[in-house]
Amino acid sequence: MTTAITILVDGLSYASWLFIVALGLTLVFGVLKILNIAHGSFYALGAYAAASFVGWFATLKLAPEWSLVAMLFAAVAVAALVAPLTERGLLRFFYGRDEVLLVLVTYALFLMLEDITKLVWGANPYYVSEPYAMFGNIEIGEQIYVGYDFMLMGLAAVVGIAVWWGLNRTRQGKIVLAVIHSEEVASSMGVNVSRVYMLAFAVGIFLACIGGAFTAPLISVQPGISVGVIIVSFAVVIIGGLGSIEGAAIGALIVGLARAAAVHLAPQVELFAIYVVMALVLVFRPEGLFQRIQARKI
């Protein structure tokens, strides 16, 4: 029983930040039809910026609670700076082109951002320890868990509900859904599709950055963290179905629990347990568990 609870808590903790990152990836694909290889680099930028902002706030002798505000500010700052430069300065010139070309463009952007992070922050690791101890420990049965992990679960729930509500209960969100369904029809109805692309891409980048910022206290922020994140994020959206919010949530939960079960029960298969699960899902549901319905072309 203790092992089962530990697997559940660890799996939910891992799935929480992964869901936030994968949600941004699936949102960008759903609206812009881009498999954004550089999404992991935006995650890394959020983590590096959070480390810098938390350190800066610490020099101001502010209360530890301000470190959470610093991480949020870091995500907002990176998204506000990087999203317009990337979407307006690069991606917009390739809309309507072959999907493989867009993948290659985002891969080139990924390589450039990897070097840019090294130029800005160097090759030494950064550690963000202040927020991790803020929430204390929580005792469940015979085990003691870090409270920060439960905060991440709550953050994932808030982010998921906010994105769902924004898409389904607001005017701007319904415009985005119209563009997802058919950008040609939406454009003919007077919708500024270019502006919708910019908005969706900015939100997607913000989700990647906030995922990186709030996982910075859990990891060593160093070069290379973007590679593992983008691979696992693709596994999540492939399992759940590209372009589906519900799929991102279920996919992250499946990946998180599979990884946690492998770590605790069979550590030797931890490296490829996620991909075994992905392969099994694709055998029976090649389109993913929650693939959105495609509009019929006439």
From TrEMBL:
<dbReference type="InterPro" id="IPR052157">
    <property type="entry name" value="BCAA_transport_permease"/>
</dbReference>
<keyword id="KW-0813">Transport</keyword>
<keyword id="KW-1003">Cell membrane</keyword>
<feature type="transmembrane region" description="Helical">
    <location>
        <begin position="14"/>
        <end position="35"/>
    </location>
</feature>
<keyword id="KW-1133">Transmembrane helix</keyword>
<feature type="transmembrane region" description="Helical">
    <location>
        <begin position="143"/>
        <end position="167"/>
    </location>
</feature>
<protein>
    <recommendedName>
        <fullName>Branched-chain amino acid ABC transporter permease</fullName>
    </recommendedName>
</protein>
<keyword id="KW-0029">Amino-acid transport</keyword>
<feature type="transmembrane region" description="Helical">
    <location>
        <begin position="272"/>
        <end position="290"/>
    </location>
</feature>
<feature type="transmembrane region" description="Helical">
    <location>
        <begin position="196"/>
        <end position="219"/>
    </location>
</feature>
<dbReference type="Pfam" id="PF02653">
    <property type="entry name" value="BPD_transp_2"/>
</dbReference>
<comment type="similarity">
    <text>Belongs to the binding-protein-dependent transport system permease family. LivHM subfamily.</text>
</comment>
<dbReference type="InterPro" id="IPR001851">
    <property type="entry name" value="ABC_transp_permease"/>
</dbReference>
<keyword id="KW-0812">Transmembrane</keyword>
<feature type="transmembrane region" description="Helical">
    <location>
        <begin position="99"/>
        <end position="123"/>
    </location>
</feature>
<feature type="transmembrane region" description="Helical">
    <location>
        <begin position="225"/>
        <end position="242"/>
    </location>
</feature>
<feature type="transmembrane region" description="Helical">
    <location>
        <begin position="42"/>
        <end position="60"/>
    </location>
</feature>
<feature type="transmembrane region" description="Helical">
    <location>
        <begin position="66"/>
        <end position="87"/>
    </location>
</feature>
<keyword id="KW-0472">Membrane</keyword>
